[in-house]
Design brief:
about 450 residues; alpha/beta; TIM Barrel; eight-stranded parallel beta barrel; two-stranded antiparallel ribbon; 15 helices; 11 strands; about 40% helix; about 15% strand; binds 5-hydroxymethyl-3,4-dihydroxypiperidine
């Protein structure tokens, strides 16, 4: 294993963007700056939901250390920084009057990116739903469409003049299925009817916000979806794998590209979908300016006999794994990018998240993480293969800039290019950070 990547910046097309990604709740510290409560705050305070009941109250204290963190993004040679707004920080009641401290924080943050020559890639919703709206049914209530659109317009009117790009939602599968059917993320429901509604209302909220943002003059609008390379665990498990493929990889992408939901998913969900769902699909299909692709792993699916629909379960596979237990399969990224380029002809794609968690430790002031370097190297090779095959891939963002709050798994799962000490919060760049520096510096500011 080496400490550098085998790729050079010039191996990628002119203007290809390299960036690092984070999200608000995972790094900022929700206790600071007058943020309202989000459903993650209450979820984490409910015993049994989060490992060691860890919360995002302090997180990486990025709220106070943002300038140091942006200096690190710039010093790595990144062209762009993907971050999110905490909805509950900006609008503590979910709607109505913005929090002045939040406006001033995000103003400083965005200006700080521009001063350092980095393009701000904003995500409007990376999971911090204000509790006030959660109490009213959150993503299972059709009204979320209007609440989210009003919030999106507030962001656009305050910050839109300085943004390079806006994503409406991050990973709607997690917002809907992981959180309302599997119960593993806030609000922690295990309810198929709430899950089906959320699978639909994430898309209506995306679509209505997109239209409103366009009417307001916003440019470069997209959405970020997550994908896995799903395969049957054994012969005979093809049906289970096809159902998971439909729920995870096809539901959102096909609704956006084709204005329809896959039959294999409707088989279980149609009876729970809200009234007038078919009529919404025309709006949902409205053109995007780009699509964000989050990809981490392969997942093997098997039939779960005796279990109600979707009657599938995950099986541990034989490939090398990250500390998340995720199987590493870089070819799955090239395959997915190629499929998406066919589904969305001509649409610019970005890898908006890709990365690995590892057991990283500081020795003699350094963090050696050659496995992460190898992981990124192999996924960058997959990006190049996709580009060579004609995929209009425009950028790659590593998840994550720094070790942070990995939701229900707390602080142990370290995805960062920068090690964050759990007590002192001291930042220590890892070898992988230096590998990016080596590949990206000197930075030439890309033309867009
Ligand atoms: O940490 C998360 C992020 O919030 C969304 N995508 C996957 C990452 C790793 O699990």
């Amino acid at each position: 294993m080496t400490a550098t990547f085998s790729h050079k910046r010039t191996d990628f097309p002119d203007g290809f963007l390299f960036g690092a990604a984070t999200s608000a709740t995972q790094i900022e510290g929700t206790a600071f700056g007058g943020a309202g409560a989000s459903h993650w705050d209450t979820f984490a305070l409910t015993p049994g939901n989060v490992v060691r009941a860890e919360t995002a109250a302090r997180a990486c204290d990025h709220y106070h250390r943002w300038a140091e963190d942006l200096d690190l993004v710039a010093a790595a040679g990144f062209d762009a920084y993907r971050f999110s707004i905490n909805w509950a920080r900006l609008l503590p009641e979910g709607m109505g009057a913005p929090n002045p401290a939040a406006i001033s924080f995000y103003d400083r943050l965005i200006d700080g990116m521009l001063e350092r020559g980095m393009q701000p890639f904003i995500t409007l919703y990376h999971w911090d739903l204000p509790s006030t709206l959660a109490h009213r049914g959150g993503w299972a209530n059709r009204d979320i469409t209007g609440w989210f659109t009003d919030y999106a317009l507030t962001v656009q009117r305050r910050f839109g003049d300085r943004l390079a790009s806006t994503a409406t939602l991050n990973e709607p599968w997690c917002v809907a299925w992981l959180s309302h059917f599997l119960g593993l993320h806030a609000p922690g429901l295990r309810d198929i009817s709430a899950a089906a509604r959320a699978m639909h209302f994430t898309l209506t909220a995306h679509a209505e916000a997109l239209a409103a943002l366009r009417a307001e003059g916003a440019k470069s609008l997209g959405i970020v979806l997550n994908f896995e390379h799903i395969e049957p665990a054994s012969p005979g498990d093809e049906g289970a794998a096809a159902t998971e493929e439909a729920l995870f990889n096809r539901w959102f992408a096909e609704a956006l590209a084709l204005g329809r939901y896959p039959a294999e998913a409707l088989e279980g969900l149609e009876r729970w979908l809200p009234a007038r769902w078919q009529a919404d699909l025309d709006t949902i299909r409205a053109p995007l300016d780009w699509l964000g692709v989050n990809y981490y792993r392969r997942a093997l699916k098997a039939t779960a006999p005796g279990s109600p629909w979707p009657a599938s379960r995950e099986v541990e596979g034989p490939l090398p794994k990250t500390t998340m237990g995720w199987e590493i399969l870089p070819d799955g990224l090239a395959d997915r990018l190629t499929k998406l380029a066919q589904l969305f002809p001509g649409l610019p794609l970005y890898v908006t998240e890709n990365g690995m968690s590892a057991n990283d430790h500081i020795h003699d002031g350094a963090v050696a993480d050659p496995e992460r370097i190898a992981y990124v190297d192999a996924h960058l090779a997959a990006c190049r293969a996709a580009i060579a095959a004609g995929v209009p891939l425009k950028g790659y963002f590593y998840w994550s800039l720094m070790d942070n709050y990995e939701w229900a798994l707390g602080y142990d799962k370290r995805f960062g290019l920068i090690h964050v000490d759990s007590e002192s919060l001291k930042r220590t760049p890892k070898w992988s950070y230096q590998a990016f520096q080596h590949m990206l510096l000197p930075r030439t500011l890309p033309s867009r």
